[in-house]
Design goal:
The protein has ten helices and ten strands. By secondary structure, the protein is α/β, with parallel strands linked by helices.
Length: about 250
């Protein structure tokens, strides 16, 4: 079941350094939001607040509220339940040292799913959604870490989809994937937004333009502008936004 995502006056500090400065964003369910901006503007930090992987950073301090659906993520009794609802794909693949099949089945098994037929169907579906099935269907028992970098990234995407998340967070997911496969996955993402909310951090402005319903532009830890994607790319309100989306800097 898809969930909305809402940031309300969120500020994140790493020690004395501000990573996000008073950010408010409202993402309706079953939409794709593109999050763009130059390096070190706070894009990845934004995603880490949603499933609380920001908690792993000792120096991080979060102020404000983050809601997934009706729940404040910092008041949920179980962070593990939260993370089961949030699929996360980072820029570089992190393959588990186990078979391709077990990489995808790992999280569902941890959640208590044991039915082999269900797992077989789930693994196949997730690998198809990540455009990997045809390349690995005859070697599902092979180590996932033996795949190429691009294949491992698609395996990471399949793993993120395995718990049928409410929210899918993608952080530069296509950085290790060839352009043809990237376009195929983009087509899948447009279908997946019927089932989940997608947060897409990308340094490819045209990728946000192709996929996103709304786009948020961050710069120097601040939200410069957010709006309907077509407006952001054709007639933004802020001059800095225009300069960024037209390649003036970044």
């Amino acid at each position: 079941m898809a969930s909305s995502v809402k940031f309300d006056n969120v500020t994140v500090r790493y020690g004395n350094s501000i990573a996000l400065d008073n950010i408010s964003i409202d993402v309706p369910e079953r939409t794709i939001i593109g999050i763009i901006g130059p390096a070190n503007s706070g894009k990845t930090t934004l995603l880490k607040c949603i499933n609380r992987t920001i908690d792993f950073i000792d120096t991080a301090k979060v102020e404000g509220t983050v809601h997934v659906g009706d729940e404040d993520v910092y008041k949920m009794p179980s962070v593990y339940d939260l993370r089961r609802r949030i699929g996360m794909v980072f820029p570089l693949p992190v393959g588990l040292p186990m078979s391709i099949y077990d990489n995808v089945a790992y999280a569902p098994r941890r959640a208590g799913i044991r039915d082999r037929q269900y797992l077989d169907e789930l693994v196949e579906r997730c690998l198809k959604q990540s455009m990997l099935w045809d390349e690995v269907k005859d070697r599902l028992k092979s180590l996932g870490t033996k795949l190429s970098g691009g294949q491992q990234q698609r395996l990471t995407l399949a793993r993120a989809l395995s718990l049928e998340p409410d929210v899918l967070c993608l952080d530069e997911f296509s950085i290790a994937i060839d352009p043809v496969t990237t376009m195929k996955i983009e087509d899948v993402l447009l279908q997946l937004k019927e089932e989940m909310t997608i947060m897409l951090v990308t340094n490819l402005c045209q990728q946000a333009h192709r996929l996103a319903d709304q786009t948020a532009f961050l710069n120097n830890s601040e939200l410069v502008e957010i709006g309907e994607t077509e407006k952001i790319f054709s007639s933004p309100d802020n001059k800095l936004t225009y300069e960024y989306v037209t390649g003036g800097f970044g």
